[in-house]
Design goal:
The chain is built from two helices and 13 strands, in the order αβββββββββαββββ. Strands 1, 4, 5, 6, 9, 10, 11, 12 and 13 form a nine-stranded mixed beta sheet that branches. A hairpin with a 2-residue loop joins β5 and β6.
Length: about 180
C-alpha cells in the first residue's frame, strides 16, 4: 500500500513540475512589442491655421493625439485574454485582435521616388501574434503588481492564456515618426 502511494506521489510531483516548467517557458517565450505615434489631424503640421472667418489661429496642442500600437507574440496556440494594460502609467482595457500574417508593417514617412517607406513592427514569426488595442479603462480590480511595474515601465500588459495569468513589461515604447492626417 505504501509503495503505491509513493508511486502516485512521485507521478503527481513529476506531472506538476512539467506543468510549471511548461507555463514558465510559455511566458518566457512570449514577446511584447510597443509603439507610440503622434497623430496630427488635418492641415498637416501647421502651427497656424486659418479658420472659416479668415482669421489666423494658433493650433492647439489638444488637437495632437498619441496612438499606441501594442502586439503580443506567444508560443501557445490558445487564445490570449487581455486583462488590463498600463501605458505610461495610465490604465487601459484592451481589445484583442488576432494577426493572421507576419511581418506586421506600417507605411511611414513620405513617398520617395514612387516608393512608400515601411516600418516593421513585428518580424516574421511562427508564434501566434495578437494586437492589443487600448480602450477606455473599465473600472475593475486592478492588478497591484502591474500598477507597481507601471511606475518603472512605459508598457505593462496583464493577460490570461491557458487559464494562467501573465504579466509582460516593456521599459520603453518605440516612437514612430508622426502621422499627419490629410
Amino acid at each position: 500500500m505504501h509503495l503505491v502511494n509513493m508511486k502516485c506521489f512521485k507521478f503527481l510531483l513529476l506531472t506538476f513540475s512539467f506543468v510549471l516548467i511548461g507555463a514558465a517557458a510559455m511566458a518566457q517565450n512570449s514577446k511584447l512589442y510597443g509603439y507610440s505615434q503622434v497623430v496630427i489631424p488635418g492641415a498637416a503640421a501647421a502651427k497656424r491655421i486659418t479658420d472659416d472667418a479668415g482669421n489666423v489661429v494658433e493650433r492647439s496642442t489638444e488637437d495632437i493625439k498619441t496612438s499606441y500600437l501594442v502586439y503580443l507574440a506567444t508560443t501557445a496556440k490558445t487564445r490570449v485574454y487581455p486583462v488590463e494594460m498600463w501605458i505610461k502609467g495610465e490604465p487601459y482595457s484592451a481589445m484583442p485582435q488576432s494577426v493572421s500574417t507576419t511581418p506586421v508593417s506600417i507605411t511611414s514617412g513620405p513617398v520617395i521616388m514612387g516608393r512608400t517607406q515601411k516600418t516593421e513592427l513585428v518580424p516574421k514569426t511562427t508564434q501566434k501574434v495578437t494586437q492589443l488595442v487600448p480602450s477606455t479603462y473599465v473600472a475593475a480590480k486592478s492588478n497591484a503588481q502591474a500598477a507597481k511595474l507601471a511606475q518603472q515601465n512605459e508598457l505593462v500588459v496583464v493577460y490570461k492564456q491557458g487559464g494562467k495569468t501573465y504579466i509582460k513589461t516593456l521599459k520603453n515604447l518605440t516612437e514612430l515618426s508622426p502621422k499627419a492626417l490629410q
